[in-house]
Design a protein that fits this description.
heterodimer; A: mainly beta; 5-stranded antiparallel sheet; 19 strands; globular; B: alpha+beta; 5-stranded mixed sheet; 3-stranded antiparallel sheet; extended; disordered N terminus
């Protein structure tokens, strides 16, 4: 039996909003350490991995492993009812055919309760090893989103080039080309605006911008985003679920484009 | 597939004789086995009684496929080919061989080309069980087939200007010996050489040059020879399996329900010799009915043209009947092509067939051709009418099927809709993204077990 109380219902709403444009149906795997999700897009070139740690909830109780097969569009519809300060409680039986969502508004003394039908989803899980990346960039998530949407106007794909001079996002399209270059810098007043680049070796990779723009839908989750690159492995875009590291993360992986210079 | 029966037009008497010894009863003369080894188990051969003890198995090129093939050559009585008969794969059988019964009498103990083994060896292995129930049947083969490759080949007897020359038989034999070392050996045995030369003369023009006969291959003679073989083969009835498949089937006209009724009233019903499957019928019976029909037909019709006219008339009225004459021609044609396809190289076969169709005076196939053309026409009509019938029948079915289909379609559409509804705009848009050059995630990350 699962019972998890989330102080901020909006947190789950943001997560679901970020994933729903990438994945249609997926399993929320609940166990005693928290609620995890791993899913791929239809083309299997991108992967999303979410971890809601037990610490993010108060209280959190899950005796047995439970897989909640959810259609994300349906879940979005339910979560649309959540208001900013609502507290969300998730409840499910051990072998559930529905997920119970309870939305409590402390201020308004209002309780909304929803039951969401679940489905059986056959999903394969991939083991993702811890990787030492050649380049890791931490930057404001809004900045990353802006770069991606701007370059999207030029081309379908972006080449990310990380070297000691900085990091360059370049797009080459029919109407011309454009690029954005960022250098490491720190803002003492607003540390959230810092751009931190860790580089062990220069790396250049090309990615589909449509996918990156899609990942950026997670931007409301967190002020910061961490982008990690290494040649020949998928790009990692990571958002923390809240500024507290113990809440969990939302990670996106995207396969680089190979041999297709555009 | 094992060929159960193989008619030998060349020497029918020998074939009959050997088939008398066919039964694996303890008939002591017809039992041959090879020495037993793990890799080479004993094989069972049935040899003709008239073959002498001097007969040997030799390897000669197959006249049709030009591959070395084993033949039994007897210095006195001629050359025999082996036909392998096997049980079908679905019903495996095996041989239980008891050699002790006739260990002493086995004067004709025969191995493959190897020399004779002492008889004691024979009794040594006593009873033996073989895995495959293969039976090798030796039946006479006309040596002329074995000579044909040399006779028709371009190498020998090619004079200046590409014209065939008269050549001594030795030249032909030399060429054959090149292909098979055994050939020169068998030439020295008994009357083999005389036999080969006499057979060679039947398909060659000959001249006498200083007491030595010279030979030149003649296509016309070959055709006459083959045709006479085919005639002998088809004289009575072909083996039942061939008769059924190639004669009855080929001549069978399609049954057109209503017209069929007329048939029985206008024609005497017994004039259809093979409406029923011929399998239960013994071949001699069939032959008898055939001959009686032939005589009836000859009294009724004076000329082939008349016969054809009546055939056509009755055929039109009564969805076709093969006249005895037509059946006979079909049989002849089947026999001819069987001989050709068994013993003669394909290139030569096409020439022979062309010659056969050109030389009307040898045998005129036109009644058969006319009949077959008519059958083909009828079949086409029947097929088209049947497909029309199917069409209308389908319509009747459709009443229910249509409902079913509509139901299914509706369900499918609903499913689709639901799926679409469960698909966000972002997911839809991502489907359009060009993912060429992007590897799948499973290429990077291993599946968790």
């Amino acid at each position: 039996m699962l019972e998890a109380r989330l102080e901020q219902a909006m947190l789950l709403k943001k997560v679901v909003d970020a994933i729903k444009d990438l994945v249609q149906d997926c399993n929320f795997d609940c166990n005693d350490s928290g609620i995890a999700l791993q899913a791929m897009d239809n083309s299997h070139v991108a992967l999303v991995s979410m971890m809601f740690k037990a610490d993010a909830f108060s209280p959190y109780r899950c005796d047995r492993n439970i897989a909640l097969g959810v259609n994300l569009v349906s879940l979005t519809k339910v979560l649309r009812a959540a208001q900013n300060d609502d507290v969300l409680t998730l409840k499910a039986e051990d072998a559930p055919d529905s997920l119970n969502l309870l939305l409590e508004s402390v201020e308004a003394d209002r309780i909304s309760e929803y039951d969401l039908k679940l489905m059986d989803i056959d999903q394969e899980h991939l083991g993702i090893p811890e990787t030492e990346y050649a380049a890791t960039i931490q930057m404001p998530s809004a900045e990353f989103k802006r770069i991606c949407t701007d370059l999207m106007a030029m081309s379908e794909s972006v080449t990310i080039e990380a070297n000691k001079d900085g990091i360059k996002f370049a797009a080459n399209g029919d109407i011309g080309n454009g690029s954005v270059t960022l250098r490491s810098h720190s803002n003492v007043d607003k540390p959230a605006q810092n751009v931190d680049i860790e580089l062990t070796e220069p790396v250049t990779l090309t990615f589909s911008l449509k996918y990156l723009v899609n990942f950026c839908k997670a931007q409301p989750l967190s002020e910061r985003v961490r982008i990690s690159l290494s040649s020949e492995v998928p790009l990692l875009v990571e958002y923390l679920l809240s500024n507290d590291k113990n809440s969990g993360h939302l990670r996106f992986y995207l396969a680089p484009k190979i041999g297709d210079e555009e | 597939m094992a060929r159960a029966t193989r008619s030998k037009a060349a020497s029918g008497s020998a074939a009959a004789k050997s088939s008398a010894a066919t039964a694996p009863a303890p008939s002591n003369k017809s039992r041959y086995t090879l020495p037993t080894t793990a890799t080479n188990p004993p094989k069972i051969f049935i040899l003709p009684r008239k073959a002498t003890s001097e007969a040997r198995v030799v390897s000669l090129p197959n006249p049709r496929y030009n591959k070395p093939t084993r033949y039994l050559v007897c210095p006195e009585t001629g050359i025999y080919e082996f036909t392998r008969i096997t049980a079908p794969k679905s019903t495996p059988r095996s041989w239980l061989i008891d050699t002790s019964v006739n260990a002493g009498t086995g004067a004709e103990n025969e191995e493959k080309p190897d020399p004779k083994k002492p008889e004691s060896d024979d009794s040594e292995f006593g009873a033996y069980v073989t895995k495959g129930a293969e039976l090798y049947l030796a039946t006479s083969i006309d040596p002329v087939f074995l000579l044909l490759p040399a006779l028709v080949s371009d190498e020998t007897a090619r004079g200046e200007g590409g014209k065939k020359m008269f050549v001594e038989s030795d030249d032909y034999f030399d060429q054959l010996s090149k292909a098979s070392p055994h050939f020169s050996e068998i030439l020295r045995w008994g009357s083999t050489r005389q036999l080969l030369e006499s057979r060679m003369a039947t398909v060659c023009d000959t001249v006498d040059a200083g007491g030595e006969p010279m030979y030149r291959f003649s296509k016309e003679k070959l055709l006459t020879e083959m045709l006479s073989k085919a005639k002998r083969m088809s004289e009575n009835s072909l083996p039942p399996s061939m008769e059924e498949k190639f004669v009855a089937k080929a001549l069978e006209a399609p049954v057109l329900g209503l017209k069929r009724e007329d048939t029985t009233t206008t024609n005497s019903s017994d004039s259809t010799p093979k409406v029923e499957p011929a399998e239960s019928q013994s071949s001699t019976e069939a032959a008898e009915t055939m001959t009686s029909h032939a005589s009836e037909a000859s009294t009724a019709a004076t000329s082939a043209a008349d016969e054809e006219a009546t055939v056509a008339a009755s055929a039109l009225k009564a969805s076709m009947q093969a006249s005895p004459e037509v059946t006979k021609l079909q049989r002849l044609r089947v026999a001819f092509s069987f001989i050709c396809s068994s013993y003669i190289v394909p290139s030569q076969v096409s020439q022979l067939k062309q010659q056969l169709s050109e030389q009307k005076k040898l045998v005129d196939f036109s009644p058969l051709d006319d009949y077959l053309a008519q059958v083909a026409k009828l079949r086409q009509e029947a097929a088209s009418s049947r497909s029309m019938g199917d069409y209308s029948r389908k319509h009747v079915l459709d009443e229910e099927e249509l409902m079913d289909r509509a139901e299914k379609k509706r369900k499918m559409e609903e499913d689709e809709k639901r799926k679409k509804a469960g698909e966000s705009r972002g997911v839809k848009n991502l489907k359009k993204v060009n993912t060429s050059g992007m590897k799948k995630m499973s290429d990077f990350f291993k599946k968790k077990t």
